[in-house]
Amino acid sequence: MNIKKGILVFCLLLCLNYLKAQQEFPAYNEPFRPQVHFSPKEHWMNDPNGMVFYKGVYHLFYQYYPNGITWGPMHWGHAISKDLMHWKELPIALYPDSLGYIFSGSAVVDSNNTSGFGRDGKIPLVAIFTHHDPKGEKEGKNTFQNESIAYSLDEGNTWIKYDGNPVLKNPGIRDFRDPKVMWYAKEKKWVMTLATLDHITFFSSPDLKDWKKESEFGKEIGAHGGVWECPDLFPLKLNGKTYWVLIVNLNPGGPNGGSATQYFVGEFNGNKFTPIDNTLRWADYGPDEYAGVTWSNTGSRKIFLGWMSNWQYANQVPTEKWRNAMTIPRELGLKQVNGNILLTSSPVKELSILEQKQHEPDNSLSKGKQVTIPGRFVLKLNITKIGDYAIVLSNSNSEKMIIGYQRGSNRYYIDRTKSGKIDFNPQFAKIAYSPRFTDAAASNLVLVVDGSSVELFADNGLSVMTEIFFPGKVYNQLQISKQKKLGINNLKLLRLKSIW
Fold it and tell me: How many CB atoms lie within 10 A of CB 263?
C-alpha cells in the first residue's frame, strides 16, 4: 500500500468512526446541550431522586416525563455512573400507577434486610417516594400525597413496588412529600425527613414499612416564601465534632428569586433536630440550583447534586429535544467562620477526570488581556488581596456573562442581562448576588463553565452560585478586568472533555 492509499484508508476510518459516534449519540450535540453535566437524552427532567451508591455504582434517579419537554405525569428516570462524571441512561425505573404519579424521594441500602425484601442472600435496595394522586388533587382533597416504597434485588436495575403501599398515609396535609430516609445506627431505626407544607416532619421505622411520627421542625424558622420541598438530613464532622445538617429546598422565596436550597446546622438525637442558631442560610445563591440532596451509602463523604434550573422558567428555556440538566456533583463540608458553622460546597475531585492540559499558559489572563477559550473549562485562581474584579465571557454577537466581586458591598455576582436568549421569561435576565462570608484578605475562585452554565465556588466553597444561559454562539472569549492592586496567582484554565 502506498502512502496516498494509506492516508485515504485512514481518513475513511476516521469518517466511519465519526458517523458511528453520531449514530450512538445523536442527541448530545444540540444547541445548549451540557457537555460536562448530566442531562437526559430527550424529554423533561427535574429533581434528582433516589440517589444511592452501591457496589461501586452511583445511581441517579430523577423526575422524568417521557412524553414531552414540559412537566407532565412524573416517572423516575434512571442513570448510573462509576465516576460521577460519565453517565449511562437506563430504562425508566418507576412508572405512574393507580396510586398516582411517582414524585420525589430517596433510596437506601437495606444491609440488614430490615424490610424482609431480601431473598437468597441478596441485599435489597429500597426506594421511598411520594405517590401523587392527580384525581384527588383535582377533587380538592388534602390527602392526595402519600409515601410508598419499592425494592430492587438486582442492584438497582429493576424495581418492584410493595403491594402494601402506601406505607405512610397523609393525615390531611396538602403538601406531604419528598421523603429522604437514612439509617440512624444509634437507635437501629430508619429516620424519614419529610417536607410537610411549610415545615419538616420526622418519622421513624424499624423496617421501612411501619412509620411513626417523631417531631416537627421549622414552622417559625428559615425562609417561608414558598412551599418546603426535597429535604435532607445528614451528619458532618468539623474539628472532630459531629454536627447535623438539614437541607430544605424552597419554592418560591429564594435569595435571587424563585426556587433555592436553604440549610440549617444543628444537633439531631434521633427524635428532634435543634439548630445552632436561627440565621437564614443558603447552600447556593444562584437562581439555578434546586432540589439538591445527597447520595446515600457514601460513608462520611457527602456528595450533593441539584437540578440546574428554576421553576420560574424551567418549562420555557429554549431547548428542543430535552429540557434541563443537573449541577456538577459537589463535596460538602463544614467550616467555622467568625463563630458561625457554615456549609461549604466544592466540585467533586472526580471532575479532574475531565480536565485536559492548561489552555492558556502564558499568563495573559492574569494581565487583563482577552484570550480565546474553549466552550467548556474550569478556571481556578488565587487572589492575594481581594478587590473588585470582573470575569467576562463573551462572543462575536456581543453577548456576555459577567462573573465578579464587589468590594464595596462585599458580595459576588453573576450578570446575565446580556447573555443571549433572555426573552422567554421576564424573570430570567437579572443580576444575582451572593454574600462573601469571610473577611480574609486572600481569596480563591473556581468556575466550572459548560456551554450553557456557570458554577461559582469562592473562598473554598463558602460562597456558591449556579446560573444557566443561552448564547446565540458559544462564548469563545474570556477576560479578567481587575484593580491594579489586586494580585492573581496560580491561575489555571483547563479545558474539559465532554462526558458524552
Answer: 23
Q: Which string of b and e fits 347-376 if b means at least 16 CB within 10 Å?
A: bbebbeebeeeebbeeebbbeeeeeebbbb
Give the separation between CA 150 and CA 162, rounded to whole angstroms.
5
Residue type, 353: I
Q: Tens of pLDDT along 107-117?
A: 999 999 999 99
Nearest CA to 445 out of 430, 455, 431 is that of 455
The three three-digit cell numbers of residue 110, written as one number: 437495606
47, 133, 178, 288: the active-site residue: 47
For 40, the grid coordinates are 437526559
Alpha carbons 33 and 341: distance in angstroms, whole number: 37
All three cell numbers of 111, joined, read: 444491609
Instruction: Return the DSSP state at 124.
Output: P
Give the pLDDT mean for 151-160: 98
Given a contact cutoff of 8 angstroms between Cβ atoms, the answer to whether 103 and 76 are in contact is no
Instruction: Based on DSSP, count helices (H) and strands (E) in the chain, helices before strands.
Output: 2, 34
Query: Phi-psi category of 398—alpha, beta or left, where left has phi over 0 and alpha has psi -120 to 50?
Result: left
Can you tell me whether residue 353 is helix, strand or coil? Answer: helix
DSSP per-residue letters across 155-173: TTSS-EE-TT--SB---S-
Global pTM?
0.93
Tell me how far apart the alpha carbons of residues 393 and 236 are, in angstroms, rounded to a whole number: 36
Counting every residue, how long is the chain? 500
According to DSSP H, which parts of 236-370 are helical? none
Q: Does residue 435 contact residue 410 with C-beta atoms inside 8 Å?
A: yes
pLDDT at 368: 86
Cell numbers given for 158: 429493576
- Residue 261 · residue 285 · CB < 8 Å: no
Q: What is the torsional sign of CA 215, 219, 223, 224?
A: positive
Contact 358, 378 (CB under 8 A): no
| All three cell numbers of 400 | 456576555
Contact (CB, 8 A) for 23 and 79: no
Residue pointed to by grid coordinates 458559544? 474
pLDDT in tens, 10-65: 555 554 554 444 444 456 999 999 999 999 999 999 999 999 999 999 999 999 99
What is each CA distance from 266 to 112, 217, 234, 272, in whole angstroms?
Answer: 29, 12, 10, 10
Q: Is 47 a catalytic residue?
A: yes
Cell numbers of 387, please? 478587590
